[in-house]
Amino acid sequence: MSDLKLPATVRTEFGKGAARRLRRAHLIPAVLYGHGEKPQHITLPGHETMLALKHHNALITLDVEGTEELAIAKDVQRDPVRQEIEHVDLLLVRRGEKVTVEVTVHVVGESAPGTIHMVDAQSITLEAEATHLPEVIEVSVEGLEAGTQVRGADLVMPEGAVFAGDPEATIVTIAIPRAEVEEPVEGAEGVEGVELPEAEGEGEEPADEA
To answer: Which residue range or ranges hold the Large ribosomal subunit protein bL25 L25 domain (predicted)?
Structure first.
């Protein structure tokens, strides 16, 4: 079973008012669904759930009033300001079952001197066993030259995982950073784009002779 365990209670009250009351009591409303079962509305402990969901694609053992279920978080709704968890959608899974999830891209290594890497896809989609879901996918840019593109087909998947996205999609690009435009030296002669003040009397029309 998973190392992350959360107690859960069946929820019988619904609506925004009930949800607010739960959150004031440091509880989180959630729904558990999957395997063709009727969605089950449950309540989770706030602090323990927050700690568990720090692990991306974490496998969680739910103790729903004495019945244990394996689940992963499919959607986490947070307050846009306080970033507190407001609601969680949990997907029922079984040991050995394969599921499709989003996994964060993590770049490792150093590209060739004078180059930088740009992450074109912050996350990718993969299929893996529910009990062996990676938290991140590492993409090595070690020694890669400018102009190199790491595509979906180039990714090295963990054992048992399969890339489920577009194999031609660009994940990381190696490029040369744009050179910063040097600011002209103030008052310097001959610097393109800098107008120098005219010398005193230069450019003035001659005075009429008496």
So the answer is: 6-90
d(CA 124, CA 166) in angstroms, rounded, equals: 9
- Encode burial over 75-102: b for 16+ CB neighbours within 10 A, e otherwise: ebeeeeeeeebbbbbbbbbeeeeebebe
Superfamily of domain 4-93: Ribosomal Protein L25; Chain P (2.40.240.10)
DSSP 8-state secondary structure symbol assigned to residue 122: S
Residue 181: what pLDDT? 37
The upper half-sphere exposure of residue 124, i.e. CA atoms within 13 Å in the direction of its Cβ, equals 35
Q: Is the pLDDT of residue 16 over 50?
A: yes
Overall fold of domain 100-175: RNA Polymerase Alpha Subunit; Chain A, domain 2 (2.170.120)
73-77 contacts at long range (C-beta below 8 A, 24 or more positions apart): none
Is 114 in contact with 176 (CB distance < 8 Å)? yes
Q: What is the mean pLDDT of residues 14-39?
A: 86
